[in-house]
Amino acid sequence: MKIAFHGAARAVTGSKHLITLKNNTQILLDCGLFQGMGDLTDDLNESFGFDPSLVSYFVLSHAHIDHCGLLPRLVAEGFKGNIYCTPATMDLARILMMDSAKIQTQDAEYANRKKRQDESPEFPLYTEKDVIQTLSQIKVVNYNEDFQIDANVTLNLTDAGHIVGSAAVHLKISEEGKTTNLTFSGDVGRYGDLLLKSPQSFPQADYVIMESTYGDSLHQDLEPIENTLKEIIHQTCIIKKGKVIIPAFSVGRTQELLYALNAMELKNILPDVQYYVDSPLSLQATEVLRSHPEVYNNGVKEVMKVDKDIFGFKGLKFIESVEESKALNSDPRPCVIISSSGMAEGGRVKHHIRNNISDQKNTILMVGYAEPRSLAGKLLAGQPKVWLFGQEYEVVADVRSIRSMSAHGDYEDLLQFLSGQDPNQIKRIFLVHGEYKVQQIFAGHLNDKGFHNVAIPEYHQEFEL
């Protein structure tokens, strides 16, 4: 058996891990879009590094675009097998992939209008037609259900607590009379998350593919989030009469923000200003989360006894049309704008940042991980000037962050995720989905816990198991 790492290798995007059995059965775990990688991004998304038509089965850990965003291209290039994921992941992946196809088509059409006749045309990575075909190949698998993929492979998914529907993937593989248990963590959530249940324990594995996004960090206690939001909104909107711009992923982070703001209203500490969610995708994602209450933790279920709409509060409005979005930029009144994308690399939030970045009364608030080369990453790093839409802008607005809102577990959460495993029975742990320096630090934490055979794969590197 072999495993090759074709994405999220010493990087935090583009997740793709390909298992090849001795009988040439191929199982691909995730097929994510590369994002925020600067000039490398387009080239990385153009080529898989393997032949999609040879992939037998596909398992999707969760619906974030850096895990599912290239799946329709995989299908377009010849993958015809089944796609396995949880019901909630299917619901989310549908809206995210359709949105991605629409954006790519629009971007290609715009680029082609700007090209000379002698220049090669631009094409989207995939179309809405490819997404529809992809959806037809999905087979849903419930949590904690042993699902026989074929005579030699059994799949089991456990709740990873990262976003709605997110799963850790467990494969029991039989080859030549030998059984191998392989676990892929997907993205691991927080223990004590605002909304979701904590990650589940799982059976003993022989090999673990482990995410490591915050392998060097400890998040602050979750409790001060409401106080921090109150302080930033009050200072910006009430005192300075400015705007708070929050780049937030449509799935997960936006709903956490809405839940926290709703909790502030229940406690009568929510500043009295207008709140906008400027992302049609966020509205759809919020509806998906509303339709899957089984993922909520006990604390949320208690709140629901007194408040049926945990994502709604006074002053909240979802913006759908482009015209309404543009109108926010010309409206001088103080407000809070939550908009995608989370790394500020595209989407409506980039326009809001451009229109507010050079005014000291405004605040740009980061609430999650940002790839260092992304616009959000550059702002977090304190760069005094940034480029937006071909023009350089001076960063005058206040730039703040709430790192504790991450849907990714910190290194203590990651170690807790592995705490049910006997280190002596694990033959090797492969660290993925992390920056190389962070992964080296996390490897040290693993060694301290007795996990000594830790590998940090390079892009396209293959290992014999």
TrEMBL record:
Name of the protein in question: Metallo-beta-lactamase family protein
Annotated keywords: Hydrolase
A GO molecular-function descriptor: RNA endonuclease activity
Chain ranges of the Metallo-beta-lactamase domain: 13-249
Domain Beta-Casp: 254-379
Organism encoding this protein: Pedobacter steynii
PANTHER family assigned: CLEAVAGE AND POLYADENYLATION SPECIFICITY FACTOR FAMILY MEMBER (PTHR11203), INTEGRATOR COMPLEX SUBUNIT 11 (PTHR11203:SF37)
